[in-house]
Structure formats: C-alpha cells, structure tokens
Design brief:
Length: 476
C-alpha cells in the first residue's frame, strides 16, 4: 500500500459512525422535527458526502482528527436539513410581476376562498349531504349552480383540471369519430397539453382544416362527413398569429355546426367570467359570450384568469353535459372538496360584483401604473432610509408585468419596477440570495439588475420583502 493510500485509510477510519453523528448536539437539536428514523437517513447521507469529498481530494488531504470530521459531518447534516426545509410546496413572495405564474402555483386564492378551505372543507362538510332533508346530496351542486348563473349556460360540471375536461369531453362526444379543428388552433399549452395528443388519447380522429394563419367557414363545411362528431374551437391561449389572418367567428361556426346537427365545443383555456378589456386583455372573451354565440359545450381552467384553484370547468347544453356527467371516466377525474369550497367562494365574489376587489389575480391585473409607481416610490423611500451606507443601489424604473399562465402573451401591463444593483455582488448573486431568503423572494433579472415588481407582491408581504432587502444590503 502506498503511503498516500495508507494515509487516506487512517483518515477514513476517523469518520464518525451514524450513531455518533445522531448523538451530536446539532443532530439532537433537529431530531424532534424530522423524526429519529429520518435523522439516521440524513446522518448516513451526511457521512457519505464527507467520505466522497475526502476521496475526491486525496492528494491535497491533511490529516483530520475524529473531532474535526464529526464537526464536518454535523455541518453536512445541517445543510441537508436546510435543503429539505426549503423544498416542497412552500410559500414564496412573487416579486416577478408574472400574475398567473405557472411555476408558482398559478392563481393565489382570495381571502374568502382561503377561509372556505380552512373553515369549511378542511373539516367535516356537507359535500354530498343535503342539510334540508338529511339525505344524500349532490356533490358540487352549488358550484354548478353558480357557474350556470355566471355564464348563462344550461348546465355545468367540474373536473380536476382543464386538460381532464378536454379529454373527457372529446372521449364522451367523439370517441371513434372525427373532430374538426382549424390548423391555426393545434396548439401546445404549457405543461404538455397538446391538442393533437389529447385527441389521440380520447380515441377521436383529428381532422385538420384551413392553414396555420387562415381558416374559412367553407373549410369547416367541406370537412364535415357522416363520421364527424364535434367541431372544436381551441383558444390559442399562449400564442398569437398576427398579420394576414382570418378565422370565422364563433357564431358562424356554431351556425354551421347546428345546421349539420353537430355540437360545437370550445376549449376556452383561461376563461374570463367578466369582461377583461378594461385591463388590456382583448383576446379573452367572457365565457358567457361563447354561450351566447352558440357554443354547445365550453371548458376552461379554474386557476388561470378566473383566480381560483386547479379545476376544469365545463358549461353548456344539458344534453351534452349530462352525457359527460354519466360517463364513468368523470368519476376518475372529479374535483375534491377543497377545490369545490374555493370555487364556491371565488364564484360568489363574481356574483356579488366584487371580483376585481376580492380576487387577487384580477386585483393585480387592474392595478394602474400610477398606483404601482406610488407604491414603489413609498417603499423605496422607506428602504433608502435604512440602507444608505452599504453597497446596495436602489432605483425605480419603468417596465412591464406579464399575465402568465399561458394567457394573453401580447398583453404587458405597464409597471413600476424597483431595480437593485450592488457594488460588489452581481445580479445573479442578488437573485440567489433573495431566492434563498425565508420566505423565498422570486425576482427577475433585466440588464444586470434584479427587479422587483410590487404588482404581484401582497401588501402584507411587503415587510418581509423590506427586511430581506435590508439584509441583502448587509450581505457580503
Ligand atoms: C391552460 C389550457 C389548458 C390546460 O388547462 P389546465 O387547467 O392546465 O389543465 C387547456 N386548453 C387551453 C386552451 C388552455 O389555455
């Protein structure tokens, strides 16, 4: 054995045992929180990491005592514990200005929706129980009634998400037959929802008509055969074709579908329940408009612009909705009680006419540049009083927020951004420090500046953001 190898062996012999490590002070401090068994697992990992590190630096190794190696293992254990603590579904401050941020859980919930989850649905609740008669009730009835009232549709149904809704509708209405879709609408929505793939899964055959940029009513008409089951319209959500384009109106397609005794199905994607034009979104017509225009069945997401929880909402004619409701796959895709509770509360905000005040995504969308500028200015003024000495530089610049969630890709509401630069730390480091804050703060980097958009930061989160920036100023 070479001298070096012998040296290594004696060092490795000094590594602590799992038993020794879990008895160390730092390990005992976290035992209650993680549980004894999991602590042993973390301890094994911590020692393994240290062993691997030692072997990797074979040449430059200096002899370490038992005590030193135990201390290093303890530190490894602690950092594994910290990493785990940061993982999972954890609250973050969204300072990115992306309102329906797909990676941050899409829509944050309204106060009444949160209350409905904690006060009602998280305890025993009358989910399928009729309190008037004491008999079995219908699951989701209240949400269905609200959806009918808000969209003007005859009937409504809720499933787990909009992708599930599309799959279910196409399976029930078109399995074994043909579905006509314009080539301009064969889109992929984030998270692997692809219209042609959903079609394949449903067992229906996709019949493409028109071209990418132009589709005429006569294209649809010519494609109708005795095997056609559905004409489908897909909201292109996350992308826009501009320039030399044409597509028939929903009314025209509906009229054609009905002449041919076919249902028109619209996958509306985001699904606005109120007119969002005043907030700069002109490509998101309200679901009620689709119903008025003659769509027979419409699906949309509950957690995009609607501002509630993950769910797929289906509205339309009773004849079709009932077929979907009775189909066995519906049972496999149904929504849970937490979703129903949050939907109920959110839809009631619309009914009261208070949606824009009460539902966070709409509230954020409706904030004006002037309001945001005022908020940013006040925040920065307070901050500058605290951070006048160290290396952080704070400016206010004009910029754009985004809708996100695969909606309205061309709408960029004007906003006021807090731009951060640092004498010695570059933007990537600033971004990382904020991301690793507790709670994590998610920012954007523009031109080597970290920017904070208060549009998506709740007012009650401002003090945590403030403390994090004060700390950032002292960071070196
Ligand atoms: C977002 C979207 C979907 C998928 O909705 P999920 O709720 O994410 O399942 C389907 N179709 C369109 C047009 C969409 O915009």
């Amino acid at each position: 054995m070479s001298k070096q190898a012998a040296n290594m062996q004696s060092i490795l012999r000094n590594l602590p045992s799992v038993d020794a490590l879990i008895k160390a002070e730092k390990a005992r401090a976290i035992e209650n929180e993680v549980g004894a068994e999991h602590l042993s697992k973390l301890a094994r990992e911590a020692i393994e990491t240290l062993r691997a590190n030692l072997l990797a630096q074979e040449d430059s190794l200096s002899v370490s005592s038992r005590e030193e190696l135990l201390a290093k293992s303890e530190n490894n254990l602690l950092s594994l514990y910290q990493q785990e603590k940061q993982a999972g579904v954890k609250h973050v401050i969204n300072a990115s200005g992306v309102i329906v941020h797909t990676n941050l859980g899409r829509a944050p919930l309204s106060e009444t929706a949160k209350q409905a989850i904690t006060e009602e649905a998280s305890r025993y609740c009358a989910l399928e129980y009729d309190l008037a008669t004491g008999k079995r009730g219908k699951r989701g009835e209240q949400v269905e009634e609200l959806l009918k009232e808000l969209t003007g549709a005859e009937d409504a149904l809720v499933v787990n998400n909009c992708a599930a809704a599309a799959l279910l509708i196409l399976t029930v209405l078109a399995k074994g037959g043909e579905v006509i879709v314009s080539r301009g609408e064969l889109v992929e929505i984030g998270g692997d929802f692809r219209v042609p793939d959903v079609m394949t899964q449903s067992g229906a055959r996709l019949v493409e008509v028109g071209t990418t940029n132009r589709t005429k009513l006569s294209d649809y008409e010519r494609a109708v055969t005795e095997n056609t089951r559905v004409i489908m319209r897909v909201h292109p959500s996350n992308y826009r074709i501009v320039g030399f384009t044409a597509t028939p109106s929903l009314e025209e397609i509906a009229q054609l579908a009905h002449e041919k005794s076919l249902p028109l199905y619209e996958d509306a994607g985001s699904g606005a329940l109120i007119d969002l034009k005043p907030y700069g979104l002109d490509g998101e017509p309200a679901i009620s408009q689709s119903i008025t225009a003659g769509a027979d069945i419409v699906s949309f997401s509950g957690d995009k612009l609607l501002g509630a929880v993950q769910s797929g909402l289906i509205v339309g004619r009773s004849e079709y909705i009932n077929r979907v409701r009775r189909f066995p796959m519906y049972r496999a895709l149904r929504a849970d009680k937490l979703a129903y509770a949050a939907l109920e509360a959110t839809l009631k905000s619309y009914l009261r006419g208070n949606a824009v005040e009460e539902i966070p995504v709409l509230k954020m969308l409706s904030m004006t540049f002037e309001q945001l500028q005022k908020r940013a200015t006040a925040f920065v003024k307070r901050l500058k009083k605290k951070v006048s000495t160290n290396g952080l530089r704070i400016d206010i610049i004009e910029g754009e927020s985004a809708i996100g969630g695969g909606s309205a890709p061309t709408t960029h509401p004007r906003t006021s951004l807090i731009a951060l630069t640092h004498e010695t730390l570059n933007a990537n480091i600033l971004e990382e420090v904020l991301r690793k804050n507790s709670p994590p703060i998610i920012t954007r980097i523009i031109d080597d500046c970290v920017v904070i958009d208060l549009r998506t930061v709740f007012e009650e989160e401002e003090h945590e953001l403030f403390s994090a920036l004060v700390k950032l100023n002292e960071h070196n």
